[in-house]
User: Fold this.
Amino acid sequence: MSTLATHKFRAGLVQMCTGRDVERNLRDAGTQIREAVAQGAHYVQTPEITSLMEMERARLFASVHAEHGNRAVNFFAELALELKIWLHIGSLPILLDNSKIANRSFLFAPNGDVVARFDKIHMFDVALPNGETYRESKNYEAGSQAVLAKLPWGMLGLTVCYDLRFPHLYRALAKAGADFLAIPSAFTRPTGEAHWHVLIRARAIETGCFVLAAAQAGKHESGRETFGHSLIVSPWG
Assistant:
């Protein structure tokens, strides 16, 4: 953990129930981001998979695009510039050259530039006790690089959702100087009820960092149900 800047800032978290309509999801996110800024937020974070929640492979690939010229990327870049904020989009599905998708976070500066990207490292490949099965790696390509970004108030470590369960990543970010850990997520209801609060608090306590974790919440059109409970947690837990 590095030495924090002395001046204060306000963080806003956007909690969504993302569906299959990208334009509707962008409008929803934009409305909540504006509300956070109206309440004084300097940094706003959205949850994992902000622009599209889709479980069916054919529907998913019919709706995703490469980063260049991407509607969602351009939308959020323009919004960050308009509102003059640090805008952290928890993740967007970005089509890669190998016909897989990156689960990619974007950090936009107040001038609208992308100053950091992070591809989710740990894929959600699990079979839950209630019978639900997820194989994120079937469609998504895992990232391989930890990412730190400089904010005016300190250093931000970027991660996404299932990365939360791998403490070595957070130790590495803290040792590299992180003051804040971003964990935008879409925890399922069963995994969230069991582990969300305790894992978020654990990552804060063990690293001495503030944790910022925007979450998906509710029953989605794709059939998935997410836990919600967006959190900001201090180093004390």
Observations:
- Residues 189-207 form the longest helix (19 residues).
- The chain has one domain: 11-233.
- The chain has five helices and 15 strands.
- Residues 11-233 form a domain with the Nitrilase/N-carbamoyl-D-aminoacid amidohydrolase fold (CATH 3.60.110.10).
